[in-house]
C-alpha cells in the first residue's frame, strides 16, 4: 500500500507502513477485497491523501467509516460521487453551509473540491465491506489514521481541525491545541442534528475567519 499513497505523504508515514500492525492490516484488506465487495474502490482507498498533498493541508475533517452502499464511497469522508443521492449527514452539512455562509445548496456531493483547497477528508477507517457498517474497524486502520492526525499536528502549524461528534472529539488528545485551531460540534447525522447538536455551529465561517486572520486562502465550501 505504501506505493499507493501520494508521494508527499510518504516521508512522514513510511515508518507506519513498516510496522507489524500495518502488515497485518494490509493482508486483511487484500483478503477482504479479494473475497467480498468492499468500498471504496481499491484504487481510491488513499484518495484523501491523493486529493490533498501534505504541504497543502490547512483543514482536517474526520469521519469514522466509509459509506457501505454501492457507488457511494470515494475515499473522502462524507463525500459521494457525482450524481449519487446525498446521504443524510451530507445533507445536514450542506444545510449548515446554506445558513452559515448564505450559499446555495450544492448540486454535487463530491467533496473533492474541498480537498483540492487543502481539506484533508479523513475517515478513521479507510475501508468497509459492502452493506456491513463498521466491518473493517479495529483491524489497524484507526492506528494508522491516528498517526496521520498526530503527524499533521506535529509537523504543521495553524491547521483547523473540525471534530464532529463524540468519536471525532476523542482525537483531540492527538492534536496540539496551542498551535492549531480545534473546532468541535455535534455530528451532522440526523440523530445528533435533530437534537440540536449540529445546526447553528457555524464551523465553516469560523474556519474561514481563522484562515483569513492567519493570511491563508479561505475554503470555498
UniProtKB/TrEMBL annotation:
Keywords: Cytoplasm, DNA damage, DNA repair, Hydrolase. The keyword Transit peptide does not apply. It catalyses: Hydrolyzes single-stranded DNA or mismatched double-stranded DNA and polynucleotides, releasing free uracil. It is found in: Cytoplasm. One of its GO terms (molecular function) is uracil DNA N-glycosylase activity. The keyword Mitochondrion does not apply. GO terms for biological process: base-excision repair, AP site formation via deaminated base removal. Signal peptide: none annotated. Its EC number is 3.2.2.27. One of its GO terms (cellular component) is cytoplasm. PROSITE patterns: U_DNA_GLYCOSYLASE. HAMAP family: UDG (MF_00148). Belongs to the uracil-DNA glycosylase (UDG) superfamily. UNG family. This is Uracil-DNA glycosylase. It comes from Pseudotamlana carrageenivorans. The gene is ung.
